[in-house]
């Protein structure tokens, strides 16, 4: 998957949570959320951080 043009990884951490992680400009970012937050919303949150 892509986060603002940078390769990122989406993974289910448990039955109750999932995360997106990516590296931009030498920094590693992660967003962890409950599955009540759907995948598309999680991706939009990551892209809204403007880390690139």
Molecular structure report:
- This protein is α+β, with helices and mostly antiparallel strands and about 50 residues long.
- It has one helix at about 40-50, and strands at about 1-5, 5-10, 15-25, 25-35.
- A four-stranded antiparallel beta sheet has the order 1-2-3-4, with helices on one face.
- It is globular, with a radius of gyration of 10 Å.
- The relative contact order is 0.30.
Detail the topology: elements first, then pairings.
Blueprint: E1 2-3, E2 6-12, E3 17-24, E4 27-34, H1 39-48
Antiparallel strand pairs: 1-2, 2-3, 3-4
Shape from CA axes? Answer: globular
Count of helical stretches: 1
Biggest sheet record: 4 strands, antiparallel
- Beta strands, count: 4
Mean pLDDT: 91
The share of residues in extended strands comes to over 45%
How do the SSEs run, as a string of H and E? EEEEH
Uncertain stretches: none
User: What is the alpha-carbon Rg in Å?
Assistant: 10 Å
Proportion in helices: 10-25%
Structural classification: alpha+beta
How far is it from the N-terminal to the C-terminal residue, by CA? 15 Å
Strand order of the largest sheet: 1-2-3-4
